[in-house]
Amino acid sequence: MTSDGLTLAVERAAEVCEETAVRHVDQLSASTREGLRELADGERRAVAGLEPGEVIVSVSYYRVVRAEATASESETTTVRA
Question: Is the pTM of the predicted complex or chain greater than 0.90?
Fold first, then answer.
């Protein structure tokens, strides 16, 4: 998986669709985990190993989105996780 140079951001995901790709943070490479931490701290950048739309779970769920997108622009249907 790769973001192919897309500028990414993350947002907290309170609900997740059953069809959504979900990975645990422990499944990420060290460099991808570091990139995810930076995104969670508010940075917006490309991170190899992350794709828009997937959800990463740690203590919280984070949905990876294009930095230009907002939650209101999301086209996914969600259900309680």
Answer: no
Query: How are strands ordered across the β-sheet holding 55-57?
Result: 8-12, 61-66, 55-57, 22-24
Around Cβ 22, how many Cβ atoms within 10 Å?
16
Three-state secondary structure call for residue 3: coil
Q: State the Cα–Cα distance between residues 15 and 17, nearest whole angstrom.
A: 7
**pLDDT tens digits for 28-55?**
999 999 999 999 999 999 999 999 989 9
Distance CA 56, CA 1 (A): 13
Q: DSSP 3-state helix, strand, coil percentages of the chain (rounded to 5)? A: 20, 25, 55
CA angle 68, 72, 73 (to 5 degrees): 50
